[in-house]
Amino acid sequence: MALSIAAVWMLAGGALIGLEALAIPGIGLLFAGLGAVLTGVALLIAPGLSVYLQFALFFIFTSVWAALLWKPLMRLRQTPGAGYNDMVGRRVTVGPERLAKGAAGQVLWSGSTLTARLSENAPTPRAEPGAEMIITAVNAGVVEVDFVN
């Protein structure tokens, strides 16, 4: 059973949207995916479209989606509190190796392993594996942690 060209366009669109969502966000694959899906729909409505017209529609639809969604998506990404600062104040556990001042280590939070540094204000120079800590700051993807009071 061979796929129709409309189905191929729609599958390609779904793959592009999936890549945007799961693998490489932020480069516009969402717009291209939506453009490809609409091109597939256009082929369902008018199955005799030439290959040139199909690609022209794809680029037009992609451009329209980009024009419509770019600003709202950028506003959504820049919403206050949408960054990593919402992690501040959360409790974490020191990972498999001890965490020492001045050296990067690992902590476990919400099922993830994060790169961490022990706060310069921590009362002791190291934290043992399994110790409960609190995130005090996030800088360049590294969480700063201190002991829970």
Structure, described:
This protein has 2 domains: 5-77, no CATH class; 84-147, OB fold (Dihydrolipoamide Acetyltransferase, E2P), CATH 2.40.50.140. With 149 residues, the protein is an alpha+beta fold. A hairpin with a 2-residue loop joins strand 3 and strand 4. It is built from 3 helices and 7 strands; from the N terminus they run H-H-H-E-E-E-E-E-E-E. The chain has helices at residues 5-22, 29-45, 51-77, and strands at residues 91-94, 99-100, 104-109, 112-118, 126-127, 132-139, 142-147.
Descriptive labels:
OB fold (Dihydrolipoamide Acetyltransferase, E2P), alpha+beta, 149 residues, two-stranded antiparallel ribbon, 3 helices, 2 domains
Lateral strand order in the biggest sheet: 1-3-4-7-6
Strand segment tally? 7
Uncertain runs: none
| H/E series | HHHEEEEEEE
Question: What's a concise summary of this model?
Answer:
By secondary structure, the protein is α+β, with helices and mostly antiparallel strands. The chain has helices spanning 5-22, 29-45, 51-77; strands at residues 91-94, 99-100, 104-109, 112-118, 126-127, 132-139, 142-147. The protein has two domains: 5-77, no CATH class; 84-147, OB fold (Dihydrolipoamide Acetyltransferase, E2P) (Beta Barrel), CATH 2.40.50.
